[in-house]
Amino acid sequence: MVESKSNDVMERIVSLCKRKGLVFQSSEIYGGINGFWDYGPLGADLKRNVKDYWWRVMTRLRDDVVGLDATIIMHPKIWEASGHTTTFADPMVDCLLTKKRYRADQIEPQSGVAYHFSGAEDGPGASGDKPKTCGEPYSFLLPEGKHAEYARQAAKNFYKLRGLKDPQLLGERTENVQNSTRYNPENGSLLTEPRLFNLMFKTYVGPVESAENVAYLRPETAQAIFAQFKTVAEVSRQKVPFGICQIGKAFRNEINPRNFTFRSREFEQMELEFFIRPDEVVEAIAGGVAQPEGAGHPGKPQPNWGWQMWHKYWVEERLAFYEEIGLPRASLVEYWQKPEELAHYARATVDILYRFPFSKRDDKGELAGEELEGVAARSDFDLSQHQRFSGKSMTVFDEELKAAWAKLDEEKKAALTARYFENRRAYLVKTNEPAERAEKQARQEAAALAGGSYVPHVIEPSAGVDRLALALICNAYCEDEAPDEKGKLEKRVVMRFSPRIAPVKVAVFPLLKNRPELVAKALQVRDLLRPLMTVYYDDGGAIGRRYRRQDEAGTPFGVTIDFDTLGEQGESLKDTVTLRDRDTMKQTRVKISELPALLQERIR
Ligand code: GAP
Questions:
Q1: Whose CA is nearest to atom 12 of ligand 1?
Q2: What's the CA gap between 250 and 264, in Å, rounded?
Q3: Looking at ligand 1, which residue's alpha carbon is closest to its atom 19?
Q4: Cα separation of 604 and 591, whole Å?
Q5: Helix or strand (DSSP H, E) at 65
Q6: Higher-confidence residue: 561 or 481?
Q7: pLDDT above 50 for 3
Q8: Would you say the CB of residue 373 lies under 6 angstroms from ligand 1?
Q9: Nearest partner of 505 among 436, 405, 602, judged by Cα
């Protein structure tokens, strides 16, 4: 089903989202604002259910992960330490004709004949005005099937934008270009040279707009976790390995927001920073470091797990999460970043991709997928950076390490110390610490292992709520046929959300609106279920129409109160209702008293 979905399907999905109030443009009455989206009643519940389930599996059901809810605006030094002020930038280019902006690294390479012009001067058409000359070169890549005159006209338009009234082109020459990213794929015009653009939204704290009051809207939630690591570890009495997780808004001034909500400027993240022992510490305590073997989940965490096992564990946990909320394994891709793609501090990163209808197709013709989440092994880079910039220690004291170290023979101590020293020295040298100072500090840090002290490493599963909500919507969208009132088959749009994350869990319908006894009973059923789940009460229109509305909303269950419920057909059916399943459209008769437990079991 996933592979057959095309961009045409995407258009229908976007239109359904608007029609059903799942997602629509922010500030729509003013024409919208690019890269910002609002979630309507159904969308808000869908997102809430996704976040609640993530929170449940990531912290509530675990002893080793605790939560955090930090501010969006933080001390600007945080972004210096994390590297965002200097390196969180994308290369951007502008079209010289339309002024439209693109990310340089997303321009498709093109080949063809480029027309180059060295400039232009005003001709007779500019009479009356002072004739102008423009010496700025301009180029145009002629689209296939177009005549050379097309390129010349585009060049004239460019020089008109430069103030010439009647441009006469100068110095025309042509060139065959191969795989060039210098031209706008949408119209062939030359693009500006790439310039780096920092993606952080800047603001000022307090009334004075001066350099010392600059602050940023966070571009990720992760940094607050690192900055508060010591406090959270202390108050929660957690010992490494343990994690801190957070859900919250993040902001990126994306150059080119696109694909509906997929790349937005304001979005939500669900991030876990799971702190682990460095491998040298694991080896000192457990006598060795386990290595991943084969595919699949590595099982329950063990004391001899180093970063590779923990990384594998979190990749598998996260894949399981997506399956638990209804994304089939076949719709997901586990992409291991190549060494040249990794961030300089990362040891490994797995991107979990979903095969969106707008994804490109790979060599086999399959949708290649787009990133939902990255699971990164980030070494001790983040905590080390905050230690360096804040001057506050980010080390932990590990009782077990201290005890184990005392029992190691001298050779082992020397080997582990040397490895740890080398890793720390390499980090410090990378941060431009002078060689001698780096060596001295790394030696001190390596010596501290004996006392049970080190900076923890981290595994980071970082997911986007909005991308996930979009994946769930795309995955749920289905067109099939269902019988109308007269039994005639008609087209039906049904959102097959997993009951676990469906915005509305059950709809309650009195068979007829004008029979007070039916309405009173239906309201009783609604009130019975409402404290336990999201219920939608609907008494408007024919029952078939009401079912159809709920199918489109993705409501997995429908409860109808009819005359049997009132006992009009005998005592045996009294206080029973029909329970309709959205996907099979089958109806079963259920006692009202059994409804709460039965439904709760199915939406858990
Ligand atoms: N702390 C690591 C981090 O932020 P990231 O890959 O930049 O890593 C993590 O972001 C996740 O956040 C992505 O996998 C994606 O789901 C979501 N995300 C990032 N940029 C986004 C955007 N512009 N719009 C929507 N979601 C975005």
A1: 464
A2: 10
A3: 464
A4: 20
A5: strand 65-68
A6: 561
A7: no
A8: yes
A9: 602
Q: Can you give the pLDDT at residue 6?
A: 59
Helix (H) or strand (E) run with residue 177 in it: strand 173-180
Q: How far is the CA of 476 from the centre of ligand 1 (A)?
A: 22
38 lines ligand 1 (CB under 6 A): no
The span from the first CA to the last CA of the chain, in angstroms, equals 26
DSSP 361-377: B-TTSSB--EEEEEEEE
- The CA angle 273-276-279, to the nearest 5 degrees, is 140
- Nearest Cα residue to 494 out of 511, 510, 475: 475
Helix (H) or strand (E) holding 529: helix 516-529
| Higher local confidence (pLDDT), 30 or 145 | 30
Per-residue pLDDT reduced to its tens digit, 350-379: 999 999 999 999 888 999 999 999 999 999
Please give the single-letter amino acid code of residue 254: E
- Provide the token pair at 95: 């079209």
Cβ of 464 less than 6 Å from ligand 1: yes
pLDDT band at 158 (very low <50, low <70, confident <90, very high): very high
Element (H, E) at 297: none
485 falls in which pLDDT band (50, 70, 90)? confident
- Residue 320 CA, ligand 1 centroid: distance in Å: 20
Does ligand 1 have an atom closer than 6 angstroms to the CB of 267? yes
Q: Is the CB of 264 under 6 A from ligand 1?
A: yes
| Index of the ligand 1 atom closest to the CA of residue 271 | 1
**CA–centroid distance, residue 14 to ligand 1 (Å):** 21
Q: Which two tokens stand for residue 372?
A: 């939902």
Please choose, from the candidates 466, 430, 445, 559, the residue with its C-alpha nearest in 3D space to the C-alpha of residue 504.
559
Q: Which of the four pLDDT bands, split at 50, 70 and 90, describes residue 482?
A: confident
Q: Is 271 in the pocket of ligand 1 (CB under 6 A)?
A: yes
Long-range contacts of 510-515 (CB under 8 A, 24+ apart): 510/539, 510/560, 510/561, 511/543, 511/560, 511/561, 511/562, 511/563, 513/539, 513/540
